[in-house]
Design a protein that fits this description.
Elements lengths: L12 H22 L7 E5 L5 H10 L4 E6 L13 E5 L13 E7 L8 H10 L1 E13 L1 H6 L3 H17 L9 H9 L4 E8 L2 E3 L3 H19 L5 H11 L5 E3 L2 E8 L6 H4 L7
Helix pairs in contact: 1-7, 5-7, 7-8
Length: about 280
């Protein structure tokens, strides 16, 4: 994994993740419902974060189904209590595939952006699917904020943070990966690959702005130390993001989905381990 900056030991991380869930869960759930997730399904939630989608899946698949929720940090996930839920600290790139598969569904949201070898991660997700199983992956693209933000100072700060992340974390396109996700998913030889981007007007103090404000607050040192932005400019941007009068387009969440072929796939085979 890359040098992921949002550790769960930070006292504001639960608030940041909860705000992100409030902003993104309705769209994710619509995609899951469209895929037909229901009683008896076996699901793997990759990078489960604070666990809202894992919890929804547990309720959806019922007693006959099963959900595996994995992440690099388990502090928030360990608060979940469902009889059909298994929790595992897991690195999608380095660790063996978790027990409980093959799966009817593998889902990851805003995870691949932080992984240098994204195609390998995707291939491993596909290899965990049963023949005919569904992959749903979602990634962010901040093009709307970089080029269409209604606040010059918020746009300036976000651009500075993207440049700082490029230098410090070594992820050249992590905030613009959404536009590349479709092609990366198609390279896995999935069937019926489709994509949809969703964006909404975010308001100051609302879930989108809260998660973004806290992300900036947590990583402010990266940009300030690089001399890309001044501390007072960061403070001004944080104030704007908390102002109910502020409104602008959110980042785009690109959702891509497809099915594993009945006979497996070349992309999945490259991942190594498969279930029979």
């Amino acid at each position: 994994m890359s040098n992921y900056p949002f550790d769960q030991a930070w006292d504001q991380e639960r608030t940041r993740l909860t705000a992100l869930e409030q902003a993104l869960d309705p769209g994710t759930i619509r995609h899951l419902e469209a895929l037909g997730v229901g009683p008896g399904w076996r699901c793997w939630e990759v990078g489960a974060g604070a666990g809202s989608i894992a919890a929804w899946l547990c309720q959806c698949v019922g007693d006959e189904g099963h959900v595996v929720a994995t992440d690099l940090e388990m502090t928030f996930l360990e608060r979940l209590s469902y009889p059909n839920l298994a929790l595992l600290r897991h690195d999608i790139v380095a660790d063996d595939l978790p027990e409980g598969g093959p799966f009817d569904l593998v889902h990851a949201r805003w995870v691949l952006e932080w992984i240098p070898d994204r195609r390998k991660a995707l291939a491993r997700m596909v290899s965990a699917l049963k023949p005919g199983g569904s992959l749903l992956v979602e990634a962010s693209d901040f093009v709307t904020l970089y080029h269409g933000c209604q606040s010059d100072i918020v746009r300036k700060v976000l651009t500075a943070f993207a440049e700082a992340a490029r230098r410090v974390l070594g992820l050249t396109d992590h905030s613009q990966y959404g536009r590349r996700l479709f092609d990366d998913a198609r390279a896995q030889d999935l069937l019926d690959v489709e994509a949809l981007g969703r964006v909404e007007m975010m308001r100051g103090g609302g879930p989108h702005c809260t998660s973004l404000r806290l992300a900036i607050l947590k990583t402010a040192g990266f940009a300030i130390k690089s001399d890309a932005i001044r501390a007072e400019e960061v403070e001004e941007a944080l104030t704007r993001l908390n102002d109910p009068a502020f409104a602008t387009m959110s980042a785009i969440t690109i959702a891509v989905w497809g099915r594993r072929p009945a006979g497996g796939s070349e992309g999945a085979a490259k991942a190594g381990k498969e279930w029979s």
